[in-house]
Write a structure and sequence with these properties.
α5 links the parallel β4 and β5. The mean pLDDT is 89. The radius of gyration is 17 Å and the shape is globular. It has one domain: 3-Layer(aba) Sandwich (Rossmann fold), CATH 3.40.50. The protein contains 10 helices and 7 strands. 35% of the residues are buried. By secondary structure, it is an alpha/beta fold.
């Protein structure tokens, strides 16, 4: 039997203890590439009403708002939302809650539910997708950017990076599209689409020459299934 409260408590503690620059808003090519890829993949335009699941300290939330999206944030950890609000007094609407049981006033309000590196921290994918699907109106889109579980460097990173743990980030192994699609379909979502991209870490991708070389390497990489980032998308009929 899954102990949801124990899992949630540990996840809150994991992120509350790991506040760092990479969790906060950043105006960098690396972050904007992630935004561009998700927004294009989900076919979203400025003005669209979006809920960001697992918004954390607003690394992507605030740039989305600056781009003209009607974005709202949902996160399990209130302290992360407090840090987001402190970073920008004009922040978008924020909601503290578990995506398995999202606030009822949010149900059916959004054209899209999106997330960045969030799903691999969720314990029960079936229950979480059921909650995510309730947030999106009929005809809406659900799209997430996640680590590619077929890229071995993530597991090296977990083992070598201070503060990262298998308990906190080991859910990467479940980010296989077939596993995610089973949970999404059980929640009534349809039409899985998958795309992979990326090549360099931030300190290279943030340099103009690095970004140009990355695009070339992505196109010519023989093992595209191992590119570091996976995009997944569904629609709610």
């Amino acid at each position: 039997m899954i102990d949801y409260e124990r899992h949630n408590t540990r996840q809150r503690a994991y992120f509350e203890a790991r506040s760092k620059a990479t969790m906060r808003p950043q105006d960098t090519p690396y972050v904007h590439r992630h935004l561009d890829e998700v927004l294009t993949f989900a076919n979203l335009r400025p003005g669209a009403r979006i809920i960001e699941v697992g918004c954390g300290e607003g690394r992507y939330t605030l740039p989305l708002a600056a781009r003209g999206f009607a974005v709202e944030g949902l996160d399990l950890a209130p302290i992360l939302l407090e840090r987001l609000a402190a970073a920008d007094p004009y922040h978008p609407p924020l909601h503290a809650g578990d995506v398995m049981a999202p606030p009822t006033e949010l149900e059916g309000r959004f054209e899209a539910a999106i997330g960045f590196f969030t799903l691999h921290h969720l314990h029960d994918l079936d229950a979480c997708f059921a909650g995510i699907a309730r947030l999106v109106r009929p005809g809406g889109v659900v799209a997430f950017l996640e680590p590619n579980p077929f890229n071995p460097l993530y597991y090296v990173q977990i083992g070598l990076t201070p503060g990262m743990t298998w308990e906190g980030d080991g859910g990467i192994v479940r980010m296989r599209p077939r596993v995610l699609d089973r949970a999404a379909r059980a929640a009534g979502l349809e039409g899985l689409a998958v795309r992979r991209f990326g090549f360099f870490p931030p300190f290279v991708a943030n340099r103009p020459r690095g970004a140009r070389i990355e695009r070339v390497l992505e196109r010519g990489f023989a093992w595209r299934s191992a590119l570091p980032f996976t995009l997944v998308r569904w629609e709610r009929p």
